[in-house]
Amino acid sequence: MTSKPARHPATAPDRDASPHGSPPRGLAPDIAARLKRSPDGLVPAIAQQYDTGEVLMLGWMDDEALHRTLTTGRCTYWSRSRREYWVKGDTSGHFQWVKAVALDCDADTLLVKVDQVGAACHTGARTCFDADVLLEDAGSADSGTSAPDQ
């Protein structure tokens, strides 16, 4: 007896199926219709500490990952390198408990406010943005005002 091989997408699964060929669990159609996805079906998701505003990490979500995040209270991402879903904290113990989720004005980026337990970065750092600071405190030399974007 031969078994049907599992479907392994090159990037993200399409909107209408999970990587295993079953239908999606059901991101609300009104939310799904608003999302602007990359060509591979993904939306960047910025994780931010809900009470301090600290930016923790950037992950990627497709419709199923967003649905899981909205319904379970834990961040679920799509791993582009492993080509699978991952729930933050399942292997590391560094959980992200969802407090709020917002869509930006262009509907192409998610902001997920979380209560981060432990490190957010896979390197073990609190955030993914601590190690390679390119510019810091640039506004201290001027009056603190800047012209709006032109």
Description:
By secondary structure, the protein is an alpha+beta fold. 11% of the residues lie in helices and 25% in strands. The protein contains 2 helices and 6 strands; from the N terminus they run αββαββββ. It has helices at residues 29-34, 63-72, and strands at residues 43-49, 55-61, 76-79, 84-87, 96-103, 110-116. The chain has a 4-stranded mixed beta sheet. A two-stranded antiparallel ribbon has the order 3-4. Strand 1 (43-49) and strand 2 (55-61) form a beta hairpin. The protein is globular, with a radius of gyration of 18 Å. The relative contact order is 0.16. Mean pLDDT is 83; it is low at 1-18.
List the helices and strands and how they pair.
Layout lengths: L28 H6 L8 E7 L5 E7 L1 H10 L3 E4 L4 E4 L8 E8 L6 E7 L34
Notable features of this structure?
single chain, 4-stranded mixed β-sheet, 25% strand, disordered N terminus
Number of helices: 2
The overall average pLDDT, rounded, is 83
Percent helix range: 10-25%
Major sheet description: 4 strands, mixed
Ranges where pLDDT stays below 50 over 5 or more residues in a row are 1-18
Short description:
With 150 residues, the chain is of the alpha+beta class. The chain has helices at residues 29-34, 63-72, and strands at 43-49, 55-61, 76-79, 84-87, 96-103, 110-116. The chain is built from two helices and six strands; from the N terminus they run H-E-E-H-E-E-E-E.
